[in-house]
Write a structure and sequence with these properties.
The complex is a heterodimer of chains A (385) and B (355). Chain A has 385 residues and is of the alpha+beta class. Chain A has 12 helices and 8 strands. In chain A, the strands form 2 sheets. A 4-stranded mixed β-sheet of chain A has the order 1-4-5-8. Chain A has a 4-stranded antiparallel β-sheet with strand order 2-3-7-6, with no helix packed on it. In chain A, 47% of the residues are buried. Chain B contains 10 helices and 7 strands. In chain B, the strands form 2 sheets. Chain B has a 5-stranded mixed β-sheet. A two-stranded antiparallel sheet of chain B has the order 6-7. In chain B, α4 runs antiparallel to α6 and α6 packs parallel to α8. Classes of the chains: A alpha+beta (385), B alpha+beta (355).
Chain lengths: 385, 355
């Protein structure tokens, strides 16, 4: 055990810090959804040009082949500098890396990592949220080996700005976890239509995506037919990783800002001082937890059910820090709506997306602690029409 | 950076687990047996655990804070009623830092002498001679160690009557303001500010480890209980409401482990201020999370958790003392706020940046 940076890590950190100091945008992340998406994509491309995207990705996949721990360094430094977080692409990128054919990896990974081609993840449906295995979007095999896709996805992040969708769809007539496949679908395909959902904070980064007889080529299948559930679970394990998705940077950035504000106030409310310290403790716990989880992957293993512990901890910390943010800032962001409300709502959504807090607790209880599986009523899974 | 235990550290943890499982208390009645107590202490000495912070010249086997934390956690997990924290960690660290005579350190390492740190009555810090004190974790201790009149050296004081403390696995004795000195040998010279900070950091880290172990034991015991206890025709552990309590307890436990490992590493590796901040962070986390996990254990046990014969209350009792000692959550948070909000320090929110 050694929490100290190795000489390589140390020089990487120093260069990164210097680079962030010169290149991080000085203006705040825009509130307007379109402007924000463009702003974050610019930032993604700039990080990529400087060599900070895909740090732990193999070189033959367009990455830099470094140890996973470098992702934690990137997150910590972006957060400490109050810079925008890196792009949340690790879940999709890892799914393609692990399950994709050589051709798919060569075709998709370089442009996904560079930010030139933007991706979304078509998992949830109106009838399949926590119960993802009840999804009903169906992919019917055609005579030419391709697929005809019909159905509806929801909560598809960034879909209206995306070029490609990693889609979960099932073989008609199949039920539950069996018969699900992953298809890589261009959103420009005729019959695919993305419509924005306006969220509680007025943002339009989520969408509903409709598939109406959309024709998809045979080579769009990721992995093998019917492997979709396994791929989805692997992808979700990455999506739950606090460092993989840049969440730690976001939280570090907020805490840094609050600390700055309170330091300048000579009459800080004693309760806020204590709460700030509590948030510091929580963030440190999360940062070190991330280091532990990434270290556990040094031997090449993939994230397992323990990732749900990290997700639950991340949820606690996110909600503590952004709840505290509302307390520290008080009236001004209430009288003039800005990005604070959005950050606050995001922290509340943290216990919903990527698997709800309740689902994560089920996973920890049953798969980490070994408690008996809850006996459910027979599953009401809806087979495809 | 590599946050994994080394193979040697994992081996030590496994050894400590084995010993702790054997020496731990299976029932509240077993806690009163003096014979097993002396045998247990000799066993810890035998495998070198009493000299973990003592130099080889005194028969010790010096290790880092990480090894100490691993052992403390296992002893806490199995509620071992031996004064490892008081004598082998705190008193030994204090006397090593002052450069006490080798013969004295040798008796600590071999287990023939036990000493206890003396804390102020609020259990917040080391006591000074002339003020009332509490000899802390003092089972079988010959005397207590307090800070002398100069504020830099140590004195050895006679112990008063044993207190009726809630912790059934550790002993606490009054130390009167005018307690006579007790001669155990040359206590060495004076401590500088840095050594005092490191002693404090090690004490808080070890207590956080003790609390982590208590949480692990509490959760293991609770999971075992709800797996075998049946109601409504099924194990109560099959109910989601119960499972979610256990899952949150696991999150609390792992968060504490994270803070603890970093603090335990920092004890010897970072500057004294950074080691102290890491230790305060770990102690704040361990104190509040162990309170919630031991309370969850009571809830998961239902009625039997409130009976004398179950060990649940023994864990709650030990945890209460460890939470309070060397500063509870609130005390740590106040000091953390001070260091985070002082203008010169506030840009450095990550200790690792400066290492």
């Amino acid at each position: 055990m050694d929490f100290r940076d190795t000489p390589e890590e140390k020089s990487f950190r120093a260069e990164l810090r210097e680079w962030i100091g010169r290149h991080a945008p000085r203006e705040p992340i825009p509130v307007d959804a379109d402007e924000r998406a463009a702003f974050l994509n610019d930032w993604h491309r700039e990080l990529h040009r400087a060599g900070y995207i895909g740090l732990s990705f193999p070189q033959d996949c367009g990455g830099h082949g470094k140890l996973e721990i470098y992702e934690a360094i990137l997150n910590d430094e972006l957060g400490a500098a109050e810079a925008p977080p890196g792009p949340p692409i690790a879940h999709i990128a890892n799914a393609i890396r692990i399950f994709g054919s050589d051709a798919q990896r060569r075709r998709h990974l370089p442009t996904l990592l560079s930010g030139e081609v933007r991706w979304c993840q078509g998992f949830s449906e109106p009838g399949a949220g926590s119960d993802l295995a009840s999804l009903s979007t169906r992919a019917t095999r055609e005579a030419d080996g391709g697929y005809r896709v019909n159905g509806q996805k929801i909560w598809t992040s960034e879909a209206i700005w995306s070029d490609w969708c990693m889609l979960l769809a099932r073989e008609p007539g199949s039920v539950g976890q069996k018969g699900i496949s992953v298809l890589l679908v261009p959103l420009a395909t005729p019959g695919v239509d993305a419509r924005p959902i306006v969220t509680a904070s007025g943002s339009r980064e989520f969408a509903e995506v409709f598939f109406d007889d959309a024709r998809v080529a045979a080579e769009s299948l990721l992995g093998t037919a019917g492997q979709g559930w396994e791929i989805a679970m692997a992808l979700l394990a990455y999506e739950r990783g606090p460092a993989d998705m840049g969440w730690v940077a976001r939280m570090g950035s907020t805490l840094q800002r609050l600390q700055g504000l309170l330091s300048e106030d000579p009459n800080v409310d004693p309760w806020l001082r204590i709460e700030l310290a509590r948030a510091h403790v929580a963030l440190r716990a999360l940062q070190i937890q991330v280091q532990r989880s990434l270290s556990a992957r040094l031997d090449g293993s993939r994230p397992g059910p323990e990732g749900s512990v990290d997700k639950l901890l991340m949820t606690r910390v996110d909600q503590r820090i952004h709840g505290l943010m509302m307390d520290v800032l008080g009236a001004p962001p209430l009288l003039e709506e800005g990005r604070e409300l959005d950050l606050y709502f995001w922290s509340r959504a943290q216990s919903i997306f990527g698997g709800t807090q309740q689902i994560q607790r089920d996973i920890v209880a049953q798969r980490v602690l070994g408690l008996p599986r809850v006996r459910r009523a027979p599953s009401a899974a809806k087979p495809g029409k | 950076m590599d946050a994994r235990l080394s193979e040697e550290q994992e081996l030590l943890r496994a050894t400590a687990e084995q010993v702790a499982r054997k020496l731990g208390s299976g029932s509240p009645e077993a806690l009163d047996s003096e014979d097993s107590f002396d045998l247990g202490w000799a066993e810890l000495a035998e495998i070198g655990l009493l000299g973990m912070r003592l130099p080889e010249s005194a028969g010790g086997m010096p290790t880092t804070g990480v090894e100490v934390a691993l052992v403390c956690a296992e002893l806490g997990r199995f509620l071992v009623p031996l004064p490892f924290l008081g004598s082998a960690v705190c008193a030994s660290e204090m006397l090593r830092a002052t450069g006490a005579e080798r013969e004295l350190l040798g008796r600590l390492a071999s287990g023939t002498l036990r000493l206890a740190p003396v804390l102020d009555p609020r259990l917040a810090r080391l006591a000074h001679v002339g003020e009332p004190g509490v000899a802390w974790d003092a089972s079988g201790a010959t005397a207590g160690l307090a800070v002398d009149e100069t504020g830099r050296g140590l004195v050895c004081l006679e112990l008063g009557e044993r207190q009726r403390a809630v912790d059934l696995t550790r002993a606490f004795h009054f130390v009167a303001p005018d307690a006579p000195r007790h001669d155990v040998g040359d206590l060495g010279g004076s401590l500088d500010g840095e050594s005092l900070q490191r002693i404090e950091a090690l004490a808080m880290t070890s207590l956080s480890a003790d609390l982590l172990g208590i949480m692990e034991g509490a959760l293991e015991e609770s999971v075992a209980h709800v797996t075998q206890r049946e109601q409504f025709g099924m194990p109560v552990g099959a109910f989601q409401a119960v499972q979610h309590l256990a899952a949150e307890a696991k999150v609390s436990l792992e968060a504490t482990r994270s803070c603890l490992w970093y603090a335990a590493w920092a004890v010897d590796q970072l500057s004294p201020e950074d080691a102290l901040l890491a230790a305060r962070t770990a102690k704040a986390c361990a104190a509040v999370e162990s309170r919630s996990v031991t309370e969850t254990a009571l809830q998961m046990h239902g009625g039997v958790g409130f009976t004398w014969e179950y060990m649940t209350h023994v864990r709650v009792r030990r945890a209460l003392l460890s939470q309070q000692s060397f500063g509870d959550e609130r005390a740590q948070l106040g000091l953390i706020a001070e260091s985070r909000l002082s203008p010169t320090l506030r840009r450095n929110s990550h200790e690792t940046l400066r290492s």
